[in-house]
Specification:
Structural class: alpha/beta
CATH topology: Rossmann fold
Bound molecules: NADP nicotinamide-adenine-dinucleotide phosphate
Number of helices: 9
Strand content: 5-15%
CATH class: Alpha Beta
CATH architecture: 3-Layer(aba) Sandwich
Helix content: 40-55%
Shape: globular
Distance between the termini: 28 Å
Radius of gyration: 17 Å
């Protein structure tokens, strides 16, 4: 899985799964465009932990359509081109239907969809068109087990990830003739900032017990699946969704 000389844009690479993805691509020889939203110092830490290079930092709020376009343009202008796009950035915010008012409900749906679905769709637009012009590329989107299993406390999150799966599969069909291949990794619980509170709380043991391995995933395990899906020689896997959930939820 060599990415020598390739440019990989990883969104949400300031921490968690995105940081692990950036680290592994750099280990495989890629030059990484490390994207972040608010957390510049954490993104700088990611940058300084990467092998090889030169790598670079890019800021963008992906909920803003204009910012997604500017991000794609900035990476191309500074790093030359984009061979691989990883849409990893995302948010998980609870909005329990029986507890919140209508305006909070709307805000949660709006923010979640803009960040987890519309942002990746807009970034796919700009980057895929760049890839088409360059003769090809690969896109990997980070979804979630919640798209299949349900998210009772965060229905917009589950819906946004189901939308991301569907969009990825449609784009796999639309872009294959252009030599652009699209895959999805759908993790279950992973040890990151997004889950620290849940894993340390009273539900921690039952969450770990969802998998027969009696633990949640490490970010590097999810990163390994992302790097695999971005590698060459597996073009025919385009449109596939890899479940990375420790057999905690099996679908056929
Ligand atoms: P995390 O630790 O909370 O990090 C989230 C990342 O997304 C950060 O880099 C953050 O940037 C970025 N981000 C948040 N809002 C953004 C916005 N509006 N625009 C641009 N970037 C934004 O999350 P994680 O656990 O690593 O999750 C990474 C991906 O895996 C997400 O898509 C998540 O849904 C998915 N996932 C996670 C789990 C899990 O259990 N952790 C399970 C299934 C799927 P800043 O820090 O710079 O603000």
């Amino acid at each position: 899985m060599s990415f020598q000389g390739e440019v990989v844009l990883v969104t949400g690479a300031s921490r968690g799964i995105g940081r692990a993805i950036a680290v592994q691509f750099a280990q495989e020889g890629a030059r990484v465009a490390v994207h972040y939203c608010r957390n510049r110092s954490a993104a700088e830490e990611t940058l300084s932990s990467l092998d090889g290079g030169p790598h670079a930092l890019f800021q963008a709020d992906l909920a803003d359509p204009a910012a997604t376009r500017a991000l794609s343009d900035a990476v191309v202008s500074e790093m030359g081109e984009i061979h691989v796009l990883v849409n990893n950035a995302g948010i998980y915010e609870e909005h329990v239907i029986s507890e919140i008012d209508f305006s909070e409900w709307q805000t949660a749906w709006d923010r979640t969809n803009k960040t987890n679905l519309i942002g990746p769709a807009n970034l796919c637009y700009s980057v895929a068109r760049h890839m088409i012009g360059n003769g090809g590329g690969r896109i990997v989107n980070v979804s979630s087990r919640g798209a299949f299993r349900g998210e009772p406390s965060a229905p917009a999150y589950g819906a946004s990830k189901a939308g991301l799966n569907s969009m990825s599969q449609s784009l796999a069909q639309a872009l294959a003739p252009h030599n652009v291949f699209v895959g999805v990794v759908a993790p279950g619980w992973v040890e990151t900032d997004m889950t620290t509170e849940h894993l340390a709380g009273p539900d921690g043991d039952s969450i770990r017990g969802q998998s027969p391995m009696n633990r949640v995933a490490r970010p590097d395990e999810i990163a390994r699946a992302v790097v695999f899906l971005a590698s060459s020689g597996i073009d025919y896997l385009t449109g596939c969704i890899i479940d990375a959930n420790g057999a905690s939820y099996l679908r056929t």
